[in-house]
Amino acid sequence: MIWLWIALVLLLQNSRGLVSASNYLIGLGSYDITGPAADVNMMGYANSEQITAGIHFRLRARTFIVAEPEGNRVVFVNLDACMASQIVTIKVIERLKARYGDLYTENNVAISGIHTHAGPGGYLQHVVYIVTSLGFVQQSFDVIVDGIEKSIIEAHENIRPGSLFVSNGELLDAGVNRSPSAYLNNPAAERGKYKYDVDKEMTLLKFVDDKWGPLGSFNWFATHGTSMSRTNSLISGDNKGAAARFMEDWFEQNGTEISYSSRLGADGIPRRVSNIIPNLHSSYHELLELAASFQSPPGGPADSNMSIARRVRAGQANKPGFVSAFCQSNCGDVSPNVIGAFCIDTGLPCDFNQSTCDGKNELCYGRGPGYPDEFESTRIIGERQFRKAVELFNKASEHLTGKVDYRHTNIDFSQLEVTLPREGEGGASEVVKTCSAAMGFAFAAGTTDGPGAFDFKQGDDKGNPFWKLVRNVLKTPDREQIDCQQPKPILLDTGEMKQPYDWAPSILPLQILRIGQLVILSVPGEFTTMAGRRLRDAVKTVLTSNGHGNVHVVIAGLTNTYSQYVTTFEEYQVQRYEGASTLYGPHTLSAYIQEFKKLASAIISGEAVEQGPQPPDLLDKQISLLTPVVLDGTSSGVNFGDVSFDVPKNSTFKKGDLVNVTFWSACPRNDLMTEGTFVLVEILHGKDTWVPAYDDDDFCLRFKWSRPSKLSTHSHATVEWRIPESTPTGVYRIRHFGASKSILGSIRHFTGSSSAFVVA
C-alpha cells in the first residue's frame, strides 16, 4: 500500500509537470503606437499622396519576455508598423540600459514589424526610406519608441512563472505568390520538394501563467500587409493588426479556451463583453422617447485624460490582459490579394512575366477576397489568420523545455566575403562578395499590391537611357558596382549616396533567439518564400546535426532594422521587384546563410560571437520638412466639438446600417490620444448613464479627419459606424474627442456628442 501511494504521488507530480510546469518566467505587455492621424505620409507604398487622415483601428507594440528562473532571458516585440527601424532600435536599447542596466541589450531584444502599409512613416533614419514623408517625423518616431519601451516595461513587471507551448498548422487561403515567374526560376528539383509556391505554415507560441492560465500567443505566418491599398488614408494594422484585435477580443470575452465560433458576431468579428448588454428597455416607443431627450449639445472643454478614461479596452487591474501578436515571416513575394492580379481597364489577368497591362504596370492590381472593398479584404484575411490561430491555440500541446539563449552580431553587408561550394567539383569552393547597396529599375515598377509610375516594368534587366541620365545626376555607379550587382541595372546607387547623410544601411543586425525547441531568426528584411526556406533549412541542419532533433525554426521578418528584400540567386536573375530591391547583390542570401550558420553553431557550442561594427546613430543629422500645426479654428459662433452633420431627428437604425456624424474638429497631431480614442459609440443605461461600447480601436468604427484645403485652419471629424449584427437594441450616441491649438501654441481639449438614436 505504501508503494502504491508513492507511485500515485509521483504520477500526479509528473502529470502536473506536463500540464503547467513553470520551467520559465513569462511576461507580456502591450502599448499604443498609433501615431499622427493627420498630415503624415504612410510608410510602405512610397506614395507621396498617401497621407494619414484618420484611423481604421489603432496600432500597438506587443511584447513577450521569456526567462530562465536563474539565467538568460529574451524579449520579442511585435510592432503594428511597416518594419523595424535601426534608429528606433538604438534608442529603445539606450532607454532599457538606463532603466535595467545590462538586463536587456541589443543581444537579447528583437523588435519586429508586421509590415502594414497603413501606418505613419518618417521614423527610419536612412534617406531613401523617408523621402516621401518629407524627411524625419519626430512624432512618428517618439510614439513608437515610447510604445516599445512601455510595452517592455509592462511585460517585465508582469513576469511570473509559467509554461510555453508550440503548435503548427497550415493556412491555405491567406497568401499567393505575386512573383511566380521569379519563383519558377529556382531549380525544379528544389521546387519539387514543396507543395506550394508560398509557405502555408503558421507557427504559434502559447503562454500559460501558473496562476492566471493562458496569457497570450504570438504566431509567425508569411503574408504581406497590403490588403489596404496605396490610396487608403486611414491608419490601420492591415490584416495582421486586424487578426490581433479579433483574437484579443475573442479571448477577453471568453476568458478560457473555447471553440472559435463561440460568441462571434454574424460578420465573423468577435463580440466584446462590453457589447453583450442586456436589453434594458422592452418598449420601442420608450427607446424613441429616451433618444429624443438627448439632442446634440454644443461642443465644450474636456479633461485631457477623458478619452483614455472612456476607452473601451481599459484592462483589468487584478490580472494581466491577454496579448496576441500576429508576426511577420518570409513574406517577400507573398500577397494577401489572393484572387490574383488583373488589369483595371480590361479586367483581364496581367502579363505573367512583367505584371503589366498593354505594357503599362500602373494598370495591374492584385485583388483581395473582398474586392473591390479593401476594408472587407483586410477583415477576411485577418479573420482567416485569426481562425487558424485560435485552432492552434486550443490544440497547442507540445511543451517547450530547455535553454533560453541568444546570439547577435552586426555584419557589414557592403563588402562581405562569402564562401560558396563549386557545383560538381567535390569539396572545391569559391569566394564571392556582396555589394554596396543599390536598387534596380524594377524597384520603381512596384508590385501588383501597389504598382509604381512612369514606364518602369518588373523584370527589367537592361534599364532605360533616360532614367540612367536622371540617376547620374544623383550618383553615377562605378564599373565595380555595376559588375557586382549584375544583372541588376542600377537605378539608385544608394549605398554610395551620402548626402545629406546615408541613403541606405550597410551594417545589419543578425540575431537568433532560442526558447527550448523554438528558434527565432531575426532578419532585417523581407525574404522571399524560397529564400526563407533555404535559410531555415540551413540553420535547422546545423542544430539537428548537433543532437537537437525536434526544432521549430521560424523567421521573424523586418526585425531590428530594414534593408528591403532578399531573394535567391536564381530569383535575382529575373529582376522582378523583389530582385531589384535585394540591395547587396546576387549573393545576399548566401551571405545571410553563412552568417546565420555561424550564430547557430555558437548557440550549440555555447561560444560567444563578435559583436561586429556598430550601426550609425544618425538622429542628430535628420531633416524634417513637415510643417507643424500652427493654428486651429472654426467658423464664427461655432465651438470645437459642435456637430456639423447630425443623425436625423428621431432616427432608428438597424443592424448592418451605417451611421454618419460629422463634428467641427482640430488637427489630430495636437494630441495623438495615445491609449485613448478620438471617437466613441456609447449606449444608454437607465435614464442618464452613458457606457462606452465601441471606440476607434474597433473594426466597425472609422474616424475620418479632413480640412477643406491644405492651408485651412478649419477641419472636420467624420465618424462612420457600421452597426454590427451583435449590437444590442438600445439608445446610442456618438462622441468625438480632440485638442485644438491656439495662435499662442496652447492646447485645449474638447469633446462633442451627436443626438441620441435608436438601434433596433
Automatic annotation (TrEMBL):
Cofactor field: Zn(2+)
GO cellular component term of the entry, any: membrane
Record field: catalytic activity: an N-acylsphing-4-enine + H2O = sphing-4-enine + a fatty acid
Domain spans labelled Neutral/alkaline non-lysosomal ceramidase C-terminal: 596-759
Annotated catalytic residues: S335 (nucleophile)
Family per record: Belongs to the neutral ceramidase family.
Domain of life, source organism: Eukaryota
Cofactor remark: Binds 1 zinc ion per subunit.
Keyword entries, A-Z: Endoplasmic reticulum, Glycoprotein, Golgi apparatus, Hydrolase, Lipid metabolism, Metal-binding, Secreted, Signal, Sphingolipid metabolism, Zinc
Keyword Lipid metabolism found: yes
Main enzyme class: hydrolase
Organism: Carya illinoinensis
InterPro entries: Ceramidase_alk, NEUT/ALK_ceramidase_C, NEUT/ALK_ceramidase_N
Pfam family, one: Ceramidase_alk
Name of the protein in its database record: Neutral ceramidase
Lineage: Eukaryota, Viridiplantae, Streptophyta, Embryophyta, Tracheophyta
